[in-house]
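Person: Please comment on this record:
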Amino acid sequence: MARSSEPPSSEPSCSGCRRTLPVDARFCPSCGAPCAPASPVGSVEARKVVTVLFCDLVGSTALSGVLDPETLRVVTLRYFEVMKAQIEAHGGTVEKFIGDAVMAVFGVPTVREDDARRALAAALGMLDALGRLNTELDAGPGVRLGVRIGVNTGQVVTGSDASARQALVSGETVNIAARLEQNAGADQILLGPDTLLAAGTTVSVEEVGPLRLKGKTEEVTAYRLLGLGGDEPEQLRRFDVPFVGRERELAALDAALERAVAGCGAQSLLVHGEAGQGKTRLVREWLRLWTGTGYEAGTGPRPGAGPAHGAGRCRQYGEQGSLSPLAEAVGGLLGRARPGADAEDALALLAEGLLADGTPSPTLDDTCAALLQVLASVAARRPVVLVLDDCHWAGPLLLDVVDRLVRDLGGAAVLVLRLARPELLELRPEGPGPVLPLPGLSGAEAELLAAGLTEVGAHRDGAATGLLERAGGNPLHLEQLLAALNEGGAGDEGGEAAPLPATVQALLGARIDALAPAERLTLDLAAVVGREFDAAELAELARSGEPSVVASMLGLSRRRLVEPAPSAGGGRAVYHFTSGLVQEVAYQCMSKRARVERHEGAAELASVRAAGEAAVGGHLERACRYRGELGLPGADTDRVRLRAAAALGRAGAQALARSDLAWADDLLARAVALYREDEPDAGPTVRRLGEVRLALGRAVEGRELLGRVAAASTDPVEAAHARLGLAVADPLADGGSVAATARAALPVFEAAGDRLGQARACLRLGQQLQLEGRHRAADRLLTRALGHAVGIDAEPERAAALGAIGVSLWRGPDPLPVATERCRALLAEHGVRRRTVRVTLNCPLAVMLALRSRWDESRACLAEAERLAGQLGFAEARVFLPLFGATVDALAGRWRQALRSLDAAGEAARSLGAGALLDTIALESARILADTGQWAAAGTALA
C-alpha cells in the first residue's frame, strides 16, 4: 500500500501553530513566533547539514489482513495525520510518504541550529501521540499500531522544485536514517552518532550495535533514544571553566544597575552578540559575583548587597504562552524575594494568569498593571534584575510589554537585561534602547580559555594556534573545535578543512541559511575567493552591479559574518570573514556544481592572479576535482585540468628555486597528480618533483621519478637534467661518474641556453676538480656556475656553488686570512635573506675560523647553519653538517666528539642512500684515527 504526500499549501504557514501567515510576515500574528525567511523562487541546489527522520509501521501486512480495506484506509490516514502533526509542530518538513513510512527532514527549507534536538523531540512526541491514537483505536476497530523510528544527521544535497512544490534531499545521510529505522524494534527510536553529537549532552541513550547496515562497508554504532533533557545553556555548554576577560562588559552591567539604584529610573540594557559569544555566561557570572562572593567594581557592592533576580528564556518552538519567558523570569524573582502586602492582590492576579500559563490574562492592561505593582514592591526592598535570554526569538508582544514595563516603572530600582543575537536589531529597527555589544575574545583571552577547556599543551604543534584563529574569539566555537581536536578531528585533510563539529556547523549554518538570496550569493562567492575579498571583484564574479554587492556586504557586516578589512585602502571596499569558520561553513553549504563555476571564475580575478600561480592553480584544481566527482568529463574538464597542472607546476618550480622544499613538494605533487603519464607537458614537473624528493631525503621516490623522465622524455634537455640528477644521487648506478655525466650534459644545456642546467653541470665538474686538488681550476668553474645561478635567481644552485667555493677557499692555495675574508665577503653579498646560502657558506667559514683558533665564532657559524638547515628541511644537511663539525672538533683536539659526529654522518648517509658521501666520511675518519695513533682502526676505515 503506497501513498504519496499531498503537496503543501502554496501559502506560508507558521512552524509553531501552523496557521497561515501573511506574505512577508516577520512574526506569526497568532503565537508571535518568528517566521523563517522565504526561499528563493525556482530550483536552488545547496548542501546542508540536516537531520532526517524515518518512521514506519510495524506489522502493517498483518494489519491489512484483519481490517476491512476502507477501515484500514481510515486508520492509515489517521496515523499519517498524527505523525505529520508532531513533525510539523517541531519545525520539520514531511518529505514524502513511502508505503507506510514517513520521511521527514529537519533543516529544509531553513536550517536551524537545533534541528537535531527538534527531530528527537518530534520522535518522542510521535510515540506519545501514537499512544493516544492507540487508545482511540482500542475503543474503535480494536487494533493497535506500532512504529519504529530512525534518525540521522549529516550533509545532504537539497533543492527546491518549484513545479512540484516539494523539498528534495539526497545523500548517504538519508540512506543511513532509513537503515536505522529498519533495525529499530517496535516503538524504538534509533539515532546515529552524529545526531547524538549534534543534539547536545542532555540526550539519554543506550548504545546499540555496532550495526552492519545495508550499503555500508563499515559498522555503525547506533543509540536507542530513552529521553531528552532540557536545553538550558549550562546543560549544553561548558560553564565549569574559569571565566575569562569581559572586564569592560562587567563594568557596564555594574553601571546600569547603579543607575537604577541611584533613582535614575528603571533601566533596560540589550546585551547582544552572535551565538556562542557568551552572553548568558557573562550575565550569570555577573549575578554570581554580586550575590555570591561579591563583586568589587570601584566602590561596588559587597557580599549580600546584590540584587534579587529572575531569568527566562525565549524559545524558537514549542507550546508556550506569548509572555512565558517573562513569566519564567518573574517566577524566579519571586522565589528569591517576595513583594509587600501592598501587592497581594496584584500577585494573586498574576498567579491566575501570567504565572500560570504565560498569557496576559484577564487582559494585557491588567497584567501589565499587576506586574508594575509587584516589581515596584520588590524593588522597594531590594534591587531587581530581570533577565530575558534569546530575545531574538521573542514575539513582538513580549518585546512591547518589556518596553512598557521599563517606561512605566518610574524610579523603581529595576534593571531589565535582554540577551539577543544581532538579528534582534534587524527585527526592531526603531531601536532597542541602550546596547552592550559583546565582541569576540582577544587572542590572549582565547588562549586562557583554551587552556581551561582542554590540555592545549599537548597540541603545541600549530594545530591549537590554527584553531584559535578559526574560532575568531567565539568561546563556543573554540570549545567545540578543541573538543573535536581531542577526538582526532577538525584538522586539515586534502587541502580543505575537515568536517566541523555538528554544533558549530548547525549554529553558523542556521545564520547563513536565513540570509536573503542576494546576501547568500555574495557570501558564497566570497567563501570561494578567500578570507579577504574585494566587493568589486565579487560583483565581477557574480556578473552583477557592484552597488548590489556592496549593499549585500553591508547586510552581511550587520550580521557579523563579514567586516571591513583594516588593510583596505585606495577607496576599495575590501572585507574579510569575521572568522575562518564562517568561510568554511559557507563553502561547505555550496553545491559542488556551484563551486566548479565559481572556482573557474575566481581563477581569472586580478587579485588571484596577483597572488601567484599557486592561487590560480588552486582554484582550477578544485574546479577540476569537483568536475570529476560530478562526472563531468570532456574537453572542458581536460582544459581545466591542464591549466591547473601547468599553474601548479610553475608555482612548484618557483618554490624550488627559492629552496622552499615543503611547499615545492606539495605543489609539484598536486600538479603531477593532474597530469596523465603520456602527456609530454608532465616531464619537467615530474623531474622537479624527483629533485625535491631527493633533497628531502626520499631517495627511492626521487630516483624513480627521475628515472621515468630519463627513460621516456623526448626532450633532450629534460632527459639531461634527469640523468645528471640520478648520477648525483647514485654515482655508481650505471658504472659512470657524476663528472662524466655532467661533461656530457653541458653541451646540451649550452645549446638550449638552459642556464640552470649549465649551473648544475659546472658545479659538478668544479667539485670533481676539487677532489683532484685543482682548486684554482675548480674556482673558475664554480664561479661560472654561480653566475648562471644568480642570473636566473636559482637559490639552491647559488648556495651549492658558493658552498663549493668556500671549500676551495679552505683547502686551496690562498692564505688563510685572505680566504677567510673572501668567504665573509661572499656571505655578505649573497647571504642576506637567503637561508640556504648561509647554511652552505657558514660551514667552510667555521673551519677557517677554527684554523685561526677563533673558536666562539666558529661554533656560532655552525650553530646558525644547523638552525637554518632545520628550517629548510634539506636532508643532505644531516650528512655534511656533522662532517664540518667533526673537522672543527678535530682541530680543537676533541677527537672522540669528532669521531662520533662522523659516525652520525655515516648513519645519515646510509639512511638517505647518499653512498657517494660515505667515501668522504671514511677518509675523514681514517685521518683522525691516524692522527691519534690508532693505525689499525684507520686501516679498517680505509678498507
About this structure: The chain is about 55% helix and 10% strand. The longest strand covers residues 146-161. Residues 115-139 form the longest helix (25 residues).
